[in-house]
Amino acid sequence: MRALITGIGGFVGGHLATLLRQEGAEVWGIDCRPLSGHVADRGITMLLGDLCDREFARCAVRDAKPTHVFHLAWEFADNVARGADADRHNLEGLRLLLEAVHESAPAARVLVTS
User: Fold this and answer.
1) Which of 16, 37, 87, 111 is the most exposed place for a label (fewest CB within 10 A)?
2) Triad 8, 11, 17: Cα angle to 5°
3) DSSP helix/strand/coil, 37
């Protein structure tokens, strides 16, 4: 299995990465922030960037060649004023990720959380 985990720096992403590595999977991770110790240095190929950047999303999926994609990245609105912006950002990132998977890894299974 070649897994691509978006939002790998979060609680669920970090634990999923650890579990998949223990099961022998090759794991690639995407996050918009540098990783903390719970995921760093565990044999995971990290990509730092924003899924709303079309070229980043395309290159990430093309390079990872995933058989499985776990989309855990999600920006939470910390106040009502940012709510609509966060929603637009989340949907655009999802759309670009799915386009990239369709283009470069069409047989991959995709799990989208919300």
Assistant:
1) 37
2) 45
3) coil
CA 58 to chain centre: 12
Instruction: Name the E strands within 7-114.
Output: 26-31, 44-48, 68-71, 109-112
Q: Determine the residue type at 7.
A: G
Handedness of CA 51, 55, 58, 60 (dihedral sign): negative
Mean pLDDT of the chain: 88
- Let me know the angle formed at the C-alpha of 68 by 111 and 54, rounded to the nearest 5 degrees: 80
CB 66 within 8 A of CB 20: no
Bridge pairing between strands 109-112 and 44-48: unpaired
Q: What is the pLDDT of residues 44-100, one digit of tens each?
A: 899 999 999 999 999 999 999 999 999 998 876 665 455 667 778 889 999 999 999
- State residue 26 phi and psi, 5-degree precision: -85, 125
CB 103 within 8 A of CB 58: yes
